[in-house]
Amino acid sequence: MNRFVTAVRALRAAAPHELLDALRRVLAEQYAARSVELLMADYGLTVLQPVSVLPHTLEPVSVHNSPAGRAFGAQEPFVTDAPDNCAEVHLPVTVRGDRQGVLSVVLPAGEHLRDRLDELAEIAEALAHELVVAERDTDLYMQARRKDRLTLAAEMQWQLLPGRSSSRPEYELGAQLEPAYATFGDNYDWSVTADTLSLYVTNGMGEGAEASLLTNLAINALRNARRAGLPLAEQACLADQAIYAHYQGRRYLSVLMFDFELATGRVRAVDAGSPRLLRLRDGRVERIDFEAQLPLGMFEETDYVIQEFQVRPGDRLVSVSDGVYGVHSPGGEAYGDSALTRAVHSTRLLPAAEVPRAVLRELTGHRGRSAPDDDALVVCLDWHGR
């Protein structure tokens, strides 16, 4: 039987918490693997955490300066020498553009190794699919992702998110929240059909679990309306009513909503609050302004109006919350549009999935300290078109 088929069948037959053990067995039998380790990207995208039984005993490795981190960043297999005439192969574990982590396999070195890289890369991708399914039934992989304990609010927010990156022929998406282990209100959501990409960037209000509860109500109200097939403006209206009915205007939420037509690049947008949008086109960064409309839930029965613009192949869109553009340096200088423009331009050569983290690193340098005062959210969309 084909080795790849054997590996996939072993993964599908394994219990959710035993995926790695099943893969170790089949890779040892079919590929003479000496060792197999699965490293999951942590919530802050700073380290790769080895999957092991609690309490974890294996040391994490850096995303930025390790062989496994190189495979994770480049999204390509990376091979290093290992003792006893072996090689260590680091393979990205990614599903539909969502970067889960890295599979590291020690194999006998030799000419046949290069021939097996494609098979091993496909096995790592199959593992990524199984991990997404397995997380419905086990906490093992979510526990492995965290190098610190999540606050309750952060736990609620991460469970609400669709992923941290996504890709299709028409686009690539990346997003990141900070502080990763203590975020509370900012959020993002996306969904794609055969014709449309829906993208929402949310600027939360308040602190702690109360902020997370408000965002959960808003996101689920928007999803409920979207899944009912309602157009963008009506989605905003129904979410606005749901939030107002619960909070009576005491709490509200800002959101920037988009529907991208995959075939044409035509974009419908509703700007209900404060998230900002910048576009990088032909090397030039410019801010895209919309007619400001009221945040969701501020007043009863607010009407929302759709605005339109066009994206072209090669465009990059970057949207941020006020926890990015409103940050001040120790000297009182606001991060603002000019610094954000420089950050978008300086990260222009990075893939969309890496841009949010890079922008947030620059923001930390401007802030002058690692601990932020507010949530910070960056979403990056690279548009390829059809």
From TrEMBL:
Coiled-coil annotated spans: none
User: What are the record keywords, sorted?
Assistant: Hydrolase
Q: Name one Pfam family in it.
A: SpoIIE
Asked whether the keyword Hydrolase is assigned, the reply is yes
Xref: InterPro entries: Bact_Sigma-Reg (IPR052016), PPM-type-like_dom_sf (IPR036457), PPM-type_phosphatase-like_dom (IPR001932)
Residue ranges constituting the PPM-type phosphatase domain according to the UniProt record:
170-383
Recorded hits in SMART domains, A to Z, give: PP2C_SIG
What PANTHER family would the database entry show? STAGE II SPORULATION PROTEIN E, STAGE II SPORULATION PROTEIN E-RELATED
State the name under which the record lists this protein: PP2C family protein-serine/threonine phosphatase
Q: Can you name the source organism?
A: Streptomyces ziwulingensis
